[in-house]
Amino acid sequence: MLRLQGCIVVADALHCQKDTAEAIILQGADYLLSVKDNQPNLKKDIEDYVQDEQLRKTMETAATNEKNRERGERRTAYVTSDIDWLDFKSDWVNLRCIGAIKTRFTTKSGISNEWHYYISSKALTAEELLKHARAEWSIETMHWLLDVHFGEDFCRVQDDNLQKILNIIRKMVINSLRVFRGKTKSKRPFSNIMLHCLIDPMFIFDIVKCLN
Hints:
By secondary structure, the protein is of the alpha+beta class. The chain has 2 domains: 8-124, no CATH class; 155-209, no CATH class. It is 43% helix and 24% strand. The chain contains 7 helices and 6 strands; from the N terminus they run βαβααββββαααα. The protein has a 6-stranded mixed sheet, sandwiched between helices. Strand 5 (97-107) and strand 6 form a beta hairpin. Helix 4 (126-150) crosses helix 5. The longest helix is centred in the middle third of the chain and has 25 residues, at 126-150.
């Protein structure tokens, strides 16, 4: 039902399915799909390749660094279009490249690493993989905020229009809190500010003033 021609569809592991990939290609678009344990054989092949230091050196790389308060993040992307060795290549329509992103977190507690693996019907550069994956993560972050602070996943409203209205209102609240924290340079978590509003409704006016 979506007009996808010329687009690249980025989706998490839930949608890493052969039928989904085929449907995207039939619409004239490309896919970038996260590979996790629901595709165990595909994930293992990609993981074994990427985790081999000699093979990883042959992959194109790009990296970004971000710091948020006391937490630093370094994301390094690896991509290759040399995938003739991949046992399951023919199972995925138009598969052109595989990739991985290593995220290195640095906090007061120490250093930790996370790996994410991908397949794509487009021969992506390492910079493009970072860009598209980051865009998908930003959507996931918003969903996480809505679920944590408003229990959106547990909402049982069945009317489509009312669902959309509630979603818009929740996002307006989240964005208002962001503006408030930015202008007041507050480090209070959203949950703390929202609780303050419940206890003292007049405090809401302080937040509204920051929106002007």
